[in-house]
Amino acid sequence: MLQIFLRFFSLGLVSFGGPAAHIGYFRQTFVQELNWLDDKHYGSLVALSQFMPGPGSSQVGFAIGYHRGGLLGGIAAFLGFTLPSFILLFLLAVTSSQWLDYSFTQGIIHGLKLLAVVVVADAIWIMFKQFCQRKQAKLLMMFSCVIILLQPSMLMQFGLLIAAALVGRHYLSSAAGSEVDASAPPLSQPVKLNFFWLSLFAGLLIASLVAISLSSQSSITNLTQLFSQFYQVGSMVFGGGHVVLPLLQQSVGDSISHDQFLTGYALAQAVPGPMFALAAFLGAEIWIEQPLIGALVATLAIFLPGFLLMLVALKSWNAISAKPQVTGAIAGVNACVVGFLLAALYTPIFTSAVLSPIDMALVVLGFGIFKTFKPNIFFLVAGFGVTGALIGAFVS
User: Which key words tag this protein in UniProt (predicted)?
Assistant: First the structure.
């Protein structure tokens, strides 16, 4: 267990670049260097993470830890990989009152907000090319984006996800099924799910929906509501990474200001580890009476659904992935979340970050550099932070 924890902790200290980069780091370390599993097995875990809601790269890490050391191994992997970003974002949250009002730090944060525009735009472009190749998927993407721009709400997003799954099941199953690994077992192989974990996932989801409904009349957030908000988001985010942004913004929008939310998101760009660790910053900001408790509850709640679903399907993934209707439904959901992310790119990201022609010029320049030269995300963070600080100092 200690070995698993330390291996993932060392990766959590240096894993900049988002889910795609994390998956590359995992393959280099656990397949090529340590030989904990082979490429075929690793590829199947990556594919499973794409078909489950939750933080994609963290789910892969959890599955590797589970493969190596069972349930405790999965927990050790999660703790190791998430702890560095959790600590950094928690400390940034609890000390924000000491440094947030300085023009220098405001300039840095503004620069990081501009970087968020670049990174999310790139994520949308990549996901569009990956998930919206067919006409039906493109239509789903456009429809979901338009609806969320006009009627932004958690209930609307949930309804669109269900509708997209139904549409994908009927119209995208052939395309999705063609991507299934040829080594997958025949469709006749029985699917044996772990119903204990499935029942726990479903029970917590129903309880969270009830808790949010009962507390909707109150403007005060308690720990049960805090857990419910983040658990609900973790249960509906497909693709992980930046896709969490629109759902989180809708879920906690009444508990935290837009500026606080985008500050946390911008800071999450600047630290290594999973994007879902943003929950540590938000939880500490929302539960200011005991920020550490708030950060722990929010972080546990947003990661828990994805891990429970991984435990449900880990032993039966090959049989599940061989069913075209299942993969078709997921293809529809993936197209839908691209639309969600496109709507989030406009609001709150673009509208809160791009405030002048200089800002827009920096976004265009940064996007061009990002796509042309593909620099390490650390250099982009440093570049946008320094540029934002200089502009802030000059303007002030």
Answer: Cell membrane, Membrane, Transmembrane, Transmembrane helix
CA distance 379 to 121: 18
Mean pLDDT by 10 residues, the chain (396 residues): 95 78 84 89 80 86 95 96 96 82 80 83 83 93 94 81 90 58 42 81 93 68 87 81 74 79 83 90 92 96 94 80 78 85 82 89 94 82 89 72
> First CA to last CA across the chain, in angstroms?
52
CA nearest neighbour of 43 among 62, 58, 24? 24
Sequential DSSP letters for 191-234 = ----HHHHHHHHHHHHHHHHHHHHGGG-S---HHHHHHHHHHHH
- Three-state DSSP at 100 gives coil
54: exposed, middle or buried (Cβ count in 10 Å: 0-12, 13-18, 19+): buried
Say how far apart CA 183 and CA 386 lie, in whole Å.
49
Domain ranges, ordered by start, for the chain: 2-395
- 3-state secondary structure at position 323: coil
Residue 358: Cβ within 10 Å count: 14
**Is residue 237 within 8 Å of residue 244, measured between CB atoms?**
yes
Q: What phi, psi does 379 have (nearest 5°)?
A: -70, -35
Sequence-ordered list of residues with C-beta below 8 angstroms from that of 187, at least 6 positions apart, any chain: 319, 322, 323
- Distance between CA 130 and CA 135 in Å, rounded? 13
Backbone conformation region of residue 372, classed left if phi is above 0, alpha if psi is from -120 to 50, else beta: alpha
